[in-house]
Design brief:
single chain; alpha/beta; Rossmann fold; seven-stranded mixed sheet
């Protein structure tokens, strides 16, 4: 499957998907330093772009992605942060959902911190995605059970276009094991 990574940062999510057998074909992020690190470690391109207000998704569509992956900034939700959604970065989660709803890839996956579950931004994000025809599943994973050498709880939201049911994350993890 072809994937693009939005809010890619230095490329952790891209690396995981690439290692799982996905063809990550492009990445997008605004943070120049992260883009530089990403470019030094991957062969596919990364584009330095502000993803906060995208009206034209043509720049993403040209990559023919089957899945869009991404980790919008978590500072407004993190227990280490101020937990203040009015600071503006929380809206990037909503921007992610709006890009997905305009592009309509078959699949999407979003990763964030556990505390996003308590946010207004997540409620709006899920609403946008459901109205766009996605069946969604969300869970909290402890990354230590996925090979990360630390206890680190991560929020995972997965969606499939035109699904009528919520699907099991255990099923998705087993699919990932089969792809290895």
């Amino acid at each position: 499957m072809r994937a693009i990574d939005l809010f890619s940062g230095c490329g952790g999510l891209s690396l995981g998907f690439q290692n799982a057998g996905f063809a990550v074909v492009a990445a997008f992020d605004k943070w120049k330093e992260a883009c530089d690190v990403y470019a030094a470690n991957f062969e596919h391109p990364i584009f330095e772009i502000d993803l906060s207000n995208i009206e034209d998704v043509g720049q993403f569509k040209e990559w023919n992605a089957d899945i869009i992956i991404g980790g919008p900034p978590c500072q407004d939700f993190s227990s280490a942060g101020k937990r203040d959604e009015t600071l503006g970065r929380a809206n990037l989660t909503i921007s992610y959902a709006k890009i997905i709803s305009k592009m309509k890839p078959e699949w999407f996956l979003m990763e964030n911190v556990e505390r996003i579950k308590k946010s207004q931004a997540l409620q709006e994000t899920v609403s946008i995605l459901k109205k766009s025809g996605y069946g969604i599943s969300l869970t909290i994973l402890d990354a230590c059970y996925c090979g990360v050498p630390q206890i680190r709880k991560r929020f995972i939201l997965v969606g499939h276009l035109h699904s009528r049911m919520v699907f099991s994350m255990i099923f998705l993890l087993r699919i990932n094991q089969l792809l290895r």
